[in-house]
Specification:
This protein is an alpha+beta fold. It folds into 2 domains: 130 residues, PurM-like, N-terminal domain (60s Ribosomal Protein L30, Chain: A, 2-Layer Sandwich), CATH 3.30.1330; 137 residues, Alpha-Beta Complex (Phosphoribosyl-aminoimidazole Synthetase, Chain A, domain 2). The strands form 2 sheets. It has a 7-stranded mixed sheet with strand order 8-10-7-11-9-12-13, sandwiched between helices. A 6-stranded mixed sheet has the order 1-2-3-6-4-5, with helices on one face.
Length: 305
């Protein structure tokens, strides 16, 4: 099963021309283009909207700038690539002013400095009539020296499903302050061979389904194993929050059982890694409930369409 956003993305991919310079096209967290010889660059672009991804009046312009850059840096983490630089474009509401733009810039810079990723340029425009702030960041990265970019389509039956950090309840504030898992992704892929990976932006249930569909496999998730954030734990249904809330910006990845064991023996990072299920043959996802019962797990995260 796919959501409407995934259906149109699949249609876009089916219409795309197969060109030799496009090494990875539509459907992953970043595209990859050859730039001559063995060199290549990865590119992603993300647009954030006031009223959808943030509340400008509540968050403030600096926090908005931080989130915009951090969301694109999270795409670099999703493919275990190394950030290079970014470009930002903003559509400003009437009367936004230079001081607000300075605050956005400072937020962008704050996020980029964590990974030596400079803001190298961009564009500014403004609404003539009514309009709310929109900010779009385009990010460039390079492949890591120790591994190729990790895609979504490599999960295999028998793989362990893992996530970093905690899930659910990000709207309580974490969606504005998360730290992209760039360092974690690079260290995980140094320690073990990862078959598939992405970041959790639309909710675990939706993003895991994307890995399953692209890899031609199914999944079984253990509800009792889900690492709940404090905010998720306080919600009406913590398991549903962990599965569907989205904007966690944690890593979701699969790897063979022996590679998982190797990873956990070598992992010394402070970020928690949790095994939450396994990849199975066939199609579809199943949720194993704490009482041992099972039910179908449908993609229930955010759908932009």
């Amino acid at each position: 099963m796919t959501n409407r956003e995934d259906e149109i993305t699949q249609w876009f991919a089916s219409q795309a021309e197969a060109l030799p310079q496009v090494l990875i096209g539509i459907g992953d967290d970043m595209a990859q283009a050859a730039v001559g010889g063995d060199a290549s660059v990865l590119v992603t672009t993300d647009m954030l909207l006031d009223g959808t991804h943030f509340d400008l009046a509540e968050a403030g312009a600096e926090a908005v700038g931080y989130k915009a850059m951090a969301a694109s840096l999270s795409d670099c983490a999703a493919m275990a690539s190394v950030p290079l630089c970014a470009f930002a474009a903003a559509a400003l509401p009437r009367g936004f002013g230079a001081e607000g733009l300075k605050q956005i810039y400072l937020g962008l810079r704050r996020a980029g400095r964590m990974f030596d990723c400079a803001l190298a340029g961009g564009d500014i425009t403004s609404w003539q009539g009514a309009g709310r702030l929109a900010i779009c960041v385009t990010m460039l990265s390079r492949p890591a020296e120790h591994c190729a970019p990790v895609r979504r389509n490599g999960a295999r039956a028998g793989d362990v499903i893992c996530v970093t950090g905690e899930l659910g309840g990000a709207i309580a504030g974490r969606h504005l302050s998360f730290v992209p898992r760039v360092h974690e992704a690079l260290e995980i892929t140094r320690l073990a061979r990862v078959n598939a990976m992405m970041d959790i932006s639309d909710g675990l249930s939706t993003d895991l389904n994307r890995i399953c569909v692209q890899s031609g496999v199914g999944a079984r998730v253990e509800a009792a194993a889900l690492p709940l954030s404090e905010a998720a734990g306080l919600s009406a249904d913590p398991i549903v929050a962990a599965l569907n809330d989205g904007e966690d910006f944690e890593l979701l990845f699969t790897l063979a059982r022996e590679e998982y064991e190797k990873l956990m023996r070598g992992w010394t990072g402070t970020t928690r890694i949790t095994r939450v299920g396994e990849i199975i043959e066939g199609a579809g996802m199943t949720l194993v409930l704490p009482d041992g019962g099972m039910r179908a797990l449908e993609p229930g995260g955010y759908d932009h369409l």
